[in-house]
Amino acid sequence: MDVKNLDAPVNTVTFNRSEIDAPTGNIYEAISIISKRATQINTEIKRELLEKLDEFATYSDSLEEIFENKEQIEVSKYYERLPKPHAMAVQEWLEDKIYYRDTTTKQ
């Protein structure tokens, strides 16, 4: 996933309700789709972060020694500054980048 190219807001933004429910015609269905996508994004970001932090991990048997690894700190700060997964999901929804289908109708 390329989280660097998303224009999702970092701060809270108010959206027009009619823009969000326009594709489905139902605000609850739209929010459910956005929520599921936000969960997917969160899982991807978490996996990516853990992989990067594992590269810098130092394992020691002593609990007394705590190492400060500047690379780990920088990676963590980068991920903290990213927009939240729900903001990314809403942005993808508004840009029509989320595929969804209605399973209750026969196609």
TrEMBL record:
InterPro entries, sorted: Pol_omega/Rpo6/RPB6 (IPR006110)
Signal peptide range in chain numbering: none
Biological process, per Gene Ontology: DNA-templated transcription
GO CC terms in record: DNA-directed RNA polymerase complex
An example molecular function term from Gene Ontology annotations: DNA-directed RNA polymerase activity
Pfam family, one: RNA_pol_Rpb6
Keywords: DNA-directed RNA polymerase, Transcription
Identification of the protein by name: RNA polymerase Rpb6
UniProt source species: Leeuwenhoekiella nanhaiensis
High-level lineage: Bacteria, Pseudomonadati, Bacteroidota, Flavobacteriia, Flavobacteriales
